[in-house]
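Researcher: We're reviewing a set of sequences before deciding which ones to prioritize for further study. For each one, I'd like a predicted 3D structure that I can look through quickly. This is Amidohydrolase. If possible, include the structure in token form so it fits the rest of the review sheet.
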Amino acid sequence: MKKILFSIASLCFLLQLKAQETVYPAPKQSGTIVITNATVHTGNGQVLNNASITIQDGKITAIGSGSNAPAGATTIDATGKHVYPGVILPISNLGLVEQGNVRASNDEREIGDWNPNVRALSAYNTDSKVINTLRSMGVLMANIVPQGSLLAGTSSVVQLDAWNWEDAAVKTDAGMHFYMPTLMPRPRFGGFGGGAGAPQADPVKQGLEQIERMKTFFREAKAYNSVDNHEETNLKFAAVKGLYDKKQKLYVHANTVKQMLIALDFVKEFGFDVVIVGGSDSWQIADLLKQNNVSVILNQPHSLPTLDDDDVDQPYKTAAALQKAGVTYAINDDDAQTRGRNIMFNAGTAATYGLTKEQALQAITLNAAKILGVSDKTGSIEVGKDANIIISAGDILDMRTNNVTDAFIQGRKVDLTDKQKQLNQRYNHKYGIKQTF
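Model: Here's the predicted structure for Amidohydrolase, in token form for your review sheet.
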């Protein structure tokens, strides 16, 4: 029996040697790396042909032309390839949820409606299998967001090549997340859930009461945080202090005009820096959002419109409407099946419905960095910024040609191996199929 158990254990160990767990975070960059002969999409609207990028100590130190490289530098010839800033996933439960239908692998939500002191970062799992699949597609950073029914806690921005959450953190606790009540009556189906004669609560009234309680909470928190010394610490009040001194942003998860107008009340009364998450009907009040300096993260452009009277392709056109109005916006991929892997294709769809390709790229790079407060470090290919760069054999916004061949996070060349690639290689080997890409 012991021999059998030992054999099983040995087999498991051998299998693990070939598994994704052996993909280690890259060490700190040493030496100089030069990417040459590339078509560089800077992320700020510019495209540089036959360009070179020099990387030293994790930073972009020079952007030139041709194939010139200093002696001793590691050279990567990107002839015929495209170079982009690393894609940023602005709203994600990455590292908090592994399998949606496996409760033990979910750590995205706390009990109760009022959890401003919850930090999503502390639960972030850098060993998630999903992370490697995102890197393979060119996603190098993500904003890790807690879920909830009202005030869910803080989000943090992480880079996707780290040993633990401390290593991963780029900007911590910079976003407070408020899930706006729907403020819409729900359909009632016969006797289900309490019987046909059971009284039905008014969701609009309930929602407005919750919003008023939220405003009361913020008023009390403002008074609390205006005093330096306290006999007793209130963790919930202390957690929102950054909203008043603009060190934090209030991310309001809302889709309808009614919800977003209430979000503007928080701007007017408290002076918060507000970001709308979802924003499917934001095109209707784009000018108002611009006037109040409110940004928008379009959570899932590949979806049906919110209202029956909207154009069926309205979600595809919303980004262009916000662009025209001058609203700062980013594009996301909130699909529970793709887990962020289609973010660049969502941007590609927006490029078909009114945006230019460079504007669509900016919506998943520099714009996202601006909204998340990390544009001083990343989001575009500019001298002085972190070398978060991807190289693709084709257009990353095009599902047919997207093929990321190299990726750098803070100048470190990261391993693009993932579980899906390993399975592909496994069964190609089994059936003697020649690799075609």
